Each structure stands twice: as C-alpha cells, then as structure tokens.
Amino acid sequence: MSSTAGFLGAEALLRLALSPQTVAATLAVVLASVVIYLLDPIQRWRLRKIPGPPTKPLLGCLQQLRSLPLPLFLQSCAQTYGPVFKVAMGRKWVVVVANAEMQRQVGLKLRAHAVLDPDFMRGRMHTIIESNLFRASGETWRQLRAAWQPAFAPASLAGYLPLMTACAQQLAARLEAKAAAAAAAAATAGGGSGRSVSGGSVDMWRELGAMTLQVVGSTAYGVDFHAINEEDEQQRDGSNGSSSSSSSRSGGPAAVADDGYGRQLAAACGQVFRYSSAMHGSAYLRVAMLLPELRPLLVPLAHTLPDTNFTLLLQARGRLCNAVFQLIDSWKQQHIGAKGEVGDALHRSNGKADAAGADRDSAAGSARQSSSGAGVGGGGGLPGVAPGSFLDLMLGQRRQQAGSGRGGGGKKADAGGHQEHQEHAPLTDEQVAGQVQLFILAGYETTANALAFAVYCIATHPEAEAALLREVDEVLGGGGPGGGGGGQPLRLPAESDLPRLAYTEAVVNEALRLFPPAHLTSRLVPTTAAGGEPLTVGGYTIPPGTPVFLPMYIAHRDPAVWPRAEEFVPERFLPSAGPLYQSLQPHAGPAAAAGPQQQQHSAHAPFGYGSRMCIGYKFALQEAKVALATLYRTLTFRLEPGQQPIKIEASATMSPRGGLRVTPVLRRQHA
Ligand code: HEM
C-alpha cells in the first residue's frame, strides 16, 4: 500500500518536473546563471566607480592582450584612465595602481601577494608548491622568510661568488670560441683581416638563461647543473643532454657535483618552465585561466586524462621533487645519521606535512624509497649536497633549531627593517623542497632577462659601452691590444672588486629601470575574514579580497619622475649622482615631499616594495655585475639586423620577444 502511494507520488513528481512550465523555469534559471556568471555583476558593482577599459564577457581584456604585451597595455590604460583603473584578466577583476608613489604606499601597506595562477599539482607536489615563500602570508610567511635570510647574509653572498664567476667565465669562453671559430672560417675564406674578430650569431638571451640556470640551480640544490653545456648539446644534436660534458667544472658551492645528475635536473627545470606556462602548457591550464571556477573539476581530469604537455610537466616536476628529497636524505645521512637524536626531531617535524600530503603523487612518493640507503655521495651516483648551497644552509639552520629543542631563533623577517627576536618552528621537508624550487623559479629567468636587456642597452649606446669597458679594464686589468688596466694581467672579478664596479652596477640598475623583468608585482586587499578592510588609494576605494597590480614598468618610465625617462642613462645611478645609488631599499617617508632625486630613488623598484621586497636582490645584483664584468673583459656584442628596437613579451616575467640575436666580438684572448 505504502509502496503504491510512493510510486504514485514519484510519478506525479516526474510529471511535474517534465511539465513545460518547469522545464521553461529551469532553462530560465540556467540561462540567468550563465549570464550572471559571464557578466559578473557583483564584482562589477563593487568596482563600479573605478574606471577601466571595455571588457568582453568571459574574456575580459584578454583580446587586447593578444595585440599588446601586458606592460604596454597597462601603460596605455594609465594614459587613458589615470593612475588607478581596473582590468579584467579573463574573469578575474584586478585593480591597477600605476603611479610610483601610490605603488610604494600600497606595496608597503599590503603584505600578501595576489596569486592568480593556482597550481595544478596534487598531493605532495601541491604541498610543496603551495608552501613556498612567494605564496605564503601571515605567520607562515614570517617563518619562511626567516629561513631564507641566512642564504643572503654577506658571508653567503661571498661564498656564491666563485660559482657566479666560474659560470660567467664558462659562458665567456664558449662565446670566445664561437667568435674565434667564425674568425678562422672568415680568414680561410680570405675576409678575416679586421682588428677585432666577430663570431657567428647567438641568441644571447638563451645563452644567459643557461648561465643563470646553472648559477641558481647549482646554488639551490647544491649540485652542479651543467646548464651551459646542456644548452650547447641540445642545440647541437637535439639530445636531452645525456652525453658528458667536456667543460671545466664550476667552482663554489657546486663543486661536489655529478655531471649526469645535475644535467638531468637542468633539463627538468627547463621543462617545468616551459610546460607551466599558458602558452606551451596543457590545454587544461588555459581552460582554467578562462574559467577558474572549473578548476576543482579540471585538476582531477588533467591527472586522470593528461594531455602530452601535462604529462611532461608531471614527469619533470616528479624528477625535481625526487631529486630534492634524495638530496635531503643524503644530507641527513651525512650530517645527522639515519637514527640520530636530532634526526628523530627532524622526522617528527615532518609529521604534519606528511599527513597533509597523504594522497601523494606516485613519482614524488617513491622518492623516499628510491633514495633510502643512499649514503653521502648518494651510493648509486647520487651526489652529496655542497656545503654553502641554499639547501645546505636551510637544512643546517633547521638542524640547529631542532637540536636546540625550540623553534629556532631567527630575527624576525626584515619587515620594515625590524630586528626583534622571533622564534619559528623548523621547516618540514616539504617546506624546504618548496623553497629550493622557488629559489630557481624566482632567480633564473628574472636575472637572465635583466642581463639580456642590459646587453641590448649597452649594444645600442656606444658611449655607455665605452665607459663600461674602461671601468672593466681598470678594475680587472688586461693591457693587451685595445685593453686598459695599465698593463696588469687580465683577471676575474674578486669580492674586493665589486664596490669598484660602480658603472657596471649603474648599467644594471638603468637596464632594470627601463626593462624591469618583474614588470609588475601584486598585492591582495585582505578579505574581511582575514581582518581586512577596504583600501583607499588615489581617491578610490578598493574592496577587500581584490587583487591589486603594481606595474613597476609604468612607474619606471614616468616622465614626471624621471628626466629623459625613455633614454638609457646609467649615470643617474652613479654614487656621484646623489642618494639615488645608496640603496635599493625603499625609504620611509613620502617620496613626494623629498627632492626629485629621492622621488626617482623610490620610483626605482625593480625588486618590489617593503617587507615583501625580493629577498634575492643582492644575489641578483651580484650575479649580474659579475656576469657583465666577466663577459665584457674579453667580448663585446653587436646586435644582429632586426633586433632594434627591441620587442618585449610578458607573462610572469618580461623578456625580449624571440630572444636577442647578437654577434660576439673578441676584444682580446684570455691572458
Ligand atoms: C633581476 C633579478 C630579479 C628581479 C627583477 C626580481 C624581482 C622580484 C620582485 C619584483 C619580487 C616581488 C616583490 C614585491 O612583491 O614587493 C620578488 C620576490 C621574490 N624574489 Fe626576486 N627578483 C630577482 C631575482 C631573484 C633571485 C636571484 C632570487 C633568489 C635567489 C629571488 C627570490 C625571490 C623571492 C623568494 C621572492 C618572494 C619574496 C616574498 O614574497 O617574501 N629573486 N622578486
């Protein structure tokens, strides 16, 4: 009886559900939802008072970005809509603050980055990515920032110098060989009688990228990446870099290297960079950019039915992940012993993240097993972690914290230069792995782009080139044909030379002004749940939860701040030019109240602002200076036809579009 009644009830319900009225109502609701979804009226309403360019449903401003790189698009918007405007990146609304002083204020006030590109990994790899310094906020950020500090202490920076110099010298030697071979070929053909000899053309951006990857990769992991020669072999025979290198070893932290191992890591890094980008990456990444709400569906789908590019990304990430855990294990065995007291404390500190990463990716999960039993030097070919490398410093600091049975005793992160003492919990293995990978991610392309733009600026400004060569010759000697240095033998830059390379540093700073590789940084107005309140800037109110872009590219070219804003004038950064040169740290007071030089100084922000300022800026400046001085000791670079004016492209970083083709010209042979 009751089942008959139930059946009749279900039938009536079904009839009602299929009635034309219900179907029409459902369709109307679905249609309204789609329209609401596409037009995003709530966010539009919240930002209604802020001006901005026209947008398309779903695409936002992405169509305009097909014809104009992001920095130039934002610059043109600033000219039309003023210093504060809104743009839609797909379905994500962002407020852009384009004025230098306003940028500085927002950069100092807000302390979390707006992360617009959620990662696609799962399990342990996801834990690793999400635990990096750039993505962190609040107390976790303070803990991580404190853990990074020792890597940029003066002693650590001095320790990296031999590796930086060796890598730059390796690149210089490679380019010299190319120039010499081309000159010999030209002489054979009867045309090589000039004073300086030029070589075949090279993509200097790629060459510098190989060098910076070798520097940051080797420093981060503590094994030699051999990226410079990796690049060579890839170009020569299209291999994945499995053949051995004939080059000299780099010095410094990476001296205990294993050739094949580092080579594979360099290749994996290259693949991660390539396949994480919207342009070369998986189709799933592109769909997620347009429809971020679908991400919870797309992530499992991508892992279940990966396309080729996603498979390659997973494999490369897995290799890097395996490597870092192998190296951590290797380090523990070297310094602690598998069952030592401190070792136990470290394992305990890892418990939390292990639980968080219970659903592990198999590639990463197998890392422990494959590395178990790898002793110092790794048993089956696994190299040990080089002393003084980033990984070594992080693990050493963690060991001290765990050994003292407390949360460590780092100074509070450099938020506003405070020096208060703060205790932090030791990092987990996953957190250490996250920082090591970020070190490469943050330091490789940025510095390569900075150097490529510097080479372009030097090649297009003969007076600046002459001043640079004069300084390099004076400081590094070399009295051969065409060289200065009072007849001193040519040598590589040492630590004591760095303060004397003032013009070289000014060249780097001016190139960073005109072409900041990090063309913008971001902040998130904290949500109300996180205790946030609306941000007021330039007379506009920006609601909690809104991402804010701070495009340094625009501030760096503001004619109201910079005399001859579009010109390359390194002299403005010389010590004799006043306080501009003193430090890259932002100063405390409002810049507008200071003189024009102070205003310029605060407007020069290639490394960002305040407590979230780039933690690696001293590393980057040292590397760039050493690289330029070492390369220009023996070489100059002529632009190939069609390279001027330079075209830029921008995603996470800004780079020369299509690379930078130059011809290396030998100034002289090595002494
Ligand atoms: C020319 C080279 C570089 C440029 C132009 C650059 C630029 C930047 C910028 C603009 C930021 C964001 C700052 C902010 O939001 O206020 C940043 C953050 C960061 N950079 Fe760099 N960077 C460079 C090299 C490096 C290097 C070599 C490393 C490490 C070895 C590094 C590590 C980081 C890290 C970890 C962060 C996040 C800091 C935090 O959120 O607390 N960067 N960088």
Automatic annotation (TrEMBL):
GO terms, molecular function: heme binding; iron ion binding; monooxygenase activity; oxidoreductase activity, acting on paired donors, with incorporation or reduction of molecular oxygen
Annotated residues for binding of heme: C614
UniProt xrefs under Pfam families: p450
Annotated SUPFAM superfamilies: Cytochrome P450
Gene3D superfamilies documented for this protein: Cytochrome P450
InterPro entries assigned: Cyt_P450, Cyt_P450_CS, Cyt_P450_E_grp-I, Cyt_P450_sf
Residue ranges, compositional bias (Basic and acidic residues): 411-427
Residues covered by region (Disordered): 230-256, 346-381, 398-429
Required co-factors: heme
Record field: compositional bias (Low complexity): 238-252, 363-373
Span of the signal peptide: none
Key words of the record: Heme, Iron, Metal-binding, Monooxygenase, Oxidoreductase
Family: Belongs to the cytochrome P450 family.
Protein name, per record: Cytochrome P450
